[in-house]
Amino acid sequence: MSENIFIETELFGNLFIYDVLMSYIYPRIFICQDDYECKYLFYDISEDEQKDEWIVVKIKKDEYYSIIDGLKSVQSYLFNNKQFYVCKKYLDESDSIECRPATKTEIDYISKTEYFVKDRPIEDIRNETLCAARDSNSNVFDLRFFAGSSRHSIPCNIMADLCNSMSSMFNHISGKKTIVPTVSTAFGSCVVRFTFQDQINLFEEYESTEKIKIMNEIISNDNFLESVEKVEKKKEFISAYTKFMQAVKKTETNVEFMSAFPNSSKVKKISLNVSEIQRHYDDIKTIFKTHENKFEQFGKVIAWDTKSKKFKIEVENRIISGNISQEYDVSRQITINENYNFIMKKYTKMDQSNYTKSETYEVINVIS
Amino acid sequence: MVVSFMSDFKDVPDKYCPDKSEHIKYNTIFRGIVHLDKLDYTDFLPSHIQYERQRKTFKNLFNSSSDYSCSLFTELDTLKISVSQIRRLRGYAQGFTDIKRGVSCKENRDHHVDYFLYDYENNSPCDDFKVIEEKDNL
Prior knowledge:
heterodimer; A: alpha+beta; five-stranded antiparallel β-sheet; B: alpha+beta; three-stranded antiparallel β-sheet; 3 helices; 6 strands; 22% strand
């Protein structure tokens, strides 16, 4: 246990390094914690090689978060909280520690230039993703969590779920195993980066390019059933995508999905807030339920049978056929080859046995 | 990094030896310095001498790879921001890198360059740099 102690002081007791805010060869601005989890902000004011000197202030938990979220500079608390001077002198036999209230002279050594935590979020996150794609000469798919803060970690179980489901989803889009993407975290906010280091074909296309585009369509489309049509192995993909969205949902934050390709200057960015992520997740969970959508449609009557309750209409060079609703007033005359405005319902569902999508139409009413 | 022929570097562990093929010459480059009147090798001293004590204090938080290199920046403004909080540095020097002193590597996105010196004491780059500005330690 004593190996982890950073410094032993009479005033604060044993202190352990909790977080490093700025490092130049070694930590210069950092947070320590005592045995009672109280936090202390250490600021290096050393000038002499023979000793390390710091100005130390005690900070609360929310003050610590305001620093790492980039909302407040370290100077905000260094100048406003009670300052202490801590010095470690390096002597031949043993080092000596001094800890006392700081003098005005020592406080004046704090730079007036405000310092915000170094890993504060990059505003131009698109450029960062594009640079990553070009530097690695690979397609890149980023997930950015906690946008607008300096938080840069997510629980490892969420990370594991993201990684497993990502690999699985991409395999099932094409129905064949492909190269496993590598995962890394990127500078600035909490960015989980998937890099696809696949081969390019003779047309200079990456195998993962089309898959990433399909993935983007699925994420950005409100209608999951429609967007998943391009996926080969739907059942397996839906299972992996459910896990993926579940992991994303667990972060309880807005998420930005960004994709970049080394041969293109365009970066696709899709932002989903917490409620949109919840809705996506709910949609996947209810794909086997019948989804109903009411709309108005103008078309020409091809067939109209009130006995069998069947209809067929022509709409912009395609045919829509279906049922006439029980509620429809059959006394209303419809003429074949005439155009009408129809109030219709579309029922969409996914078949649970073969994961195929089915659509049925129903006419509710006809407007002249 | 590729392990280079060891005689180029003095006491540098294998894993920190950049190959000479990685050297990129910088004609204009900047460094934060301590001595305003006259530069000496201590302004470029690799940290394994200067920071031996801090290594003991900070243990695995100490950046060991920088033991054998000094930090340079290709942009003066970036250097100023990076060292704005470091009281000990008093000014900025401008100079160039040379393969006869060591290997200067590719700059990263923060305009930072690692300059691995063969022999920081006897073959220091201090003559290749001159002080251009005093640091405002306000």
